[in-house]
Fold this protein.
Amino acid sequence: SAHPALPEVSYPSYSQYQPCPLTSRRVPELEESISDFLRAAKPLLSPAEFEETQHLAKQFLQEEGPVIHDKLLEYDAMPGINSYIENFWEDAYLTQRSSIAINTNPFFVLEDDPTPSRTSQIARATTLVWSSLKFCQGVRAGELEPDMFRTTPLCMRQYLRLFGTCRIPRAARDDVRTCAEARHIVVMCRGHIYWFNVLDGSGRLCISESILRETLRSIREDSIAFTPEQNISNAVGILTSTDRETWARCRETISSMSEHNEKSLRIVDESLFVLCLDDNSPQSPADMAKCALHGTSVVESFMGSSGMQVGTSINRWYDKSLQLVVCQNGAAAINFEHSVIDGYTVLRFASDVFTETILRFAENIRGGFAHRSSAGMRSAEHARAEKEEEAAKTASFHRIEWVLDRELLTSILKAEAFLSDRIMQVDLQVLEFANYGKNFIVDQRMSPDAYVQIAMQVAYYQLYKETACTYETLMTKKFFHGRTEAGFVVTEESTRLAESFDRNSLEVSKELLKKALDAHVKVVKLGSEGRGIRHLYALKCLSERGRAAWWSPRLLGATSTVTLPDLFKGVAWKKLNRHVISSSNCGNPALRLFGFGPVCEDGFGFGYIIKDDNMQFCVSSFNRQTSRLIAALEDTLLNFKRSLQGQTTLMPLSPAYGSMITQKHVIPFSEAKN
């Protein structure tokens, strides 16, 4: 069936964000993409497999490839097409039928608020919501400073979908809706859903910060009155963690049961964002990362009923573009839906929000000095009295009460059990590497990102004695409507280093490392210019019967008789689309941690942040003993430094590190500082 066009929001004019026009991402030459494909595939294949792949590539260039490529050029030239890859890539996300919880939604763990008085849950949540609303106002007014990479302006379009946006489950392909007039936020607490207005009809704040704080406090107190059984019975949000077909059916049933339910779903969909007030207090970085990725699963007995879920896993709505998670001890995180928003966009949001907390901390210090004068003291006492008077007020908030039958309750209980099973399968570990960071690597005249990427490949090889397909997200926001390119960063040079690193002499190791880093930098540079194999992915989409129907019946007629070329059936294509190591570098001073789940059952998800004198890694897998890979990575980073500093021996990889890693890196979250 035909799919509707993606909705366009009405605010503000694009030129307000992008005063300097950006160029569109060009469609690469077919020969360029085939060359990139062969380069990426060669280190992963046996000689016989690579020879067969070369044959398929040559056949594709001589037969089907040019025909499909011409159709892509025709599509790219159509009115309204801003990027040849954009719709294909969004379609890849929205046609995904597995759960987006763990599998797709990334997370950021924020640094602690530096103001001691704002480290409790309600105080931290108030600060984050208040700063988020101000950022939202800046987006709507078109007042954000343009994003820049050095001197290059970046596309700002994604900010228009950061607020008031929700993914809607549908059969076959989901939709994404953005409400440009959204005025309210949703607060989730113990599985219950509350909402209240924060903006007026003109987009101005309609509540004060103190009223916001007391409203959040009242919501938390209201939720405490319910039993665990009542909590799970109202936890409709847990259904967003199921596979998309199941959630689509359940949502349709919920909507059809009553007009009230339909309105309630719309309230969540159209909210500016979701604030999740969690019941737990994570005590280690890894615990906080797990909370941010999927919440907690804690099963307890209640009034004779065994196996009642009381964890925070029921306190999420994964379809929302933006979820702010705040725990009882003030630890905070962001979980975001990935189909139309990338990490770089949410990173800017997190950075601006954190910057405001620093400025408020500075103002708090200055205010303390100012109040030493008698006039200042009288002024402070007057202000304090006004705040105490206003503190008794709360905004008018509403709790959603769902109309559900026994079948839907069963679906909720099964969804909770399925997510709990999945949580138990996720092995997420954190390495906070404090030996060195960006400064040391730059002093060696090396790229910090390339350095870390090569270390990951060497560490993996040290454990498994094989080269794994390694994917790195590469930013292409320098282009109009730009998002990312797939960086397949295993090279012949990195493979040569990994296979011999523990046997090399000092000088050989240094030389091979430099060659591997140079090769990596070349791959990244080509990807940032729009080179890679996403071009081939677009050609594959066009060659599949009916895939283009939802945006162009003309293209459907032109391509419906084209069968899938053999190139896309070969072993090379399959290996490059199974990302055993999926990785992304996304960080700045606002973030403590960044991560996501593995993208294949036997894979690892690597989120990392490189700071001046340290590095943070969140590594996840489905029961693949993640701690062993983290320990191998730490050893590799230390050995890289030994090699570069001219030490004559490398540290041997310890066979017993698996048991020590959990002890070595578990630090109380509230005490550990970068």
Observations:
- The first strand starts at residue 107 and ends at 110.
